Amino acid sequence: MKRISRAVAVAAVLALAAAACNANNKSTPSAGSTAAAQQGGTFHVLSTAKEISLDPAKSQNLGTSTIHLVLRGLTSWKTSPDKAAELVPDLATDTGQVSDGGKTWTYKLKSGLKYADGSPIVAADIKYGVERSFAPELSGGLGYHKSLLVGGDKYAGPYKGGELASIETPDDTTIVFKLNKPYGDWPWIVSMPAFSPVPKKADTDPAHYGEKPMASGPYQVQSYTPGSKLVLTRNPNWDKSTDQARTGLPDSIVTDMGLQPDVVNQRLIADSGDDKNAAATGVSVPAALIPTITGNPAVKARVATSPSGALAYLAMNTKRPALSNPAVRKAIQYAVDKQAVQVAVGGPEYGGEIASTLITPGMDGYNKYDLYQAPPAGDPDKAKQMLQAAGVSNLNLVLAADNTSSGVIGVSVAQAIQQGLKRAGINVTIKPMDNTPLTDLITGNKADFDLTVSSWLPDFPSAIGNIQPLFASSEIGNGGYNISRYSNPAVDSAIAAATAESDRSKAAGMWGAIDKQIMQDAPIVPLIYARNAFLHGSNVQNFYLPPYPPYPNVLIVGLSK
């Protein structure tokens, strides 16, 4: 899962922001229709990244990002402007056959699959690709499977540990995964980069494999110059008829690297030369540029905004004496001025919609509800009354905030919260901190803080990612992201049951019930569903931000002429 530190996982920091589904049930797909996209041309991606690794073992990329132009998995994501991402078969014939009470998942590969060099893709290559992800020297990638596969806790990868017995390949087209517990979202897990095929014979230099991996998707690496440029050209052996997720429209895709964020946005605003065929896929529009964009209809038409995405929230440390009383936490639900938070990050159109749930719109299991029904600007009088009834006065709290962020977890949002709580008679002292020490503080074992603002985006489209990492007792301290220190045995049991359910419709209902169960204890205040906004050139088509993930789907982008 990703703790978003601007607008991130348990790890990654990206320039983000996102918003709502039923609260705002249409996206803004910007200029250009699907019908206008044509085969051919060179699509340019303007990036701030100085390095790009296409090694699947080391990747934390979402299912609609650049690495999946080159690599395919067992399953993939299919997006639309107004619906949650759909799981579709990719290299596999279906999304998985489950047995053994949810602990065994079996996949059959489609026939005729080939790499760019014409050699066949076989099940053993997928097994080896997953095994590589356990190697310590290839760390950093999404690792859900590592704790789920039997023996994964002791396995050290193929370079030192041999094979992982819980992945079986009885023939070239069959792969079987043995899990240590039922896990209903396994079909999403096998869409992650680590489940891309890697032929053992091609892995002669693991440290540099990501510079030119064996291509199974519509594109292959032609050249890569760190800090400058990544050039992808067509894979002649990619068969569109086997691929539901990718259009393969451009002849080539060039990523221009090492750019400053303001340079990216200014170039796209200018829309000249090759930049007409360019887009930003990881550089969100900053609040400072919103007046420039809204004042120019031609530019505004080239901004794609997300209808939903990361949840920004105020976490209350339930282990602190002042906040251990649920009545106090419920009073704070009314004291917070969510409208001021919304204004601080760019308003409803570009900043995001006001939030009231834990599961974000665009996820199966999301149900629009507002347990406390506080006015958007808060109700300080009611908050005062609730505190008085609880026998609490002179409440003084410390709010740890990220002084390196200009987005939803930054000091400006902390100040908006501070002012709202002050009206309810709650004194808040803001403690500005750099991102790394702040993360160490809120995920560590001492947790010397009362409040903090955070933002969270799951790594795949399942409500487990909205709930389990933030509210399961197992995620308190030791680097976990249950930063409210919330612990409820009944909730833990409900999480375990929902995790094991392989019927995704049933699981969604279970997660929705857990959402309301947690909010009754009020460990956090949902603030906004933070909206993303990305610019693109006038020739770029099929460029929109789905409800989830709140990023452009580069697998379907094409150009007009």
Automatic annotation (TrEMBL):
KW Nuclease (keyword) present: no
Domain (Solute-binding protein family): residue spans on this chain: 86-477
Keywords linked to the UniProt accession: Signal
Annotated signal peptide: 1-23
Record keyword Plastid present: no
PANTHER family per the UniProt record, alphabetical: ABC TRANSPORTER SUBSTRATE-BINDING PROTEIN, PERIPLASMIC BINDING COMPONENT OF ABC TRANSPORTER
Protein name: ABC transporter substrate-binding protein
Provenance organism: Kribbella karoonensis
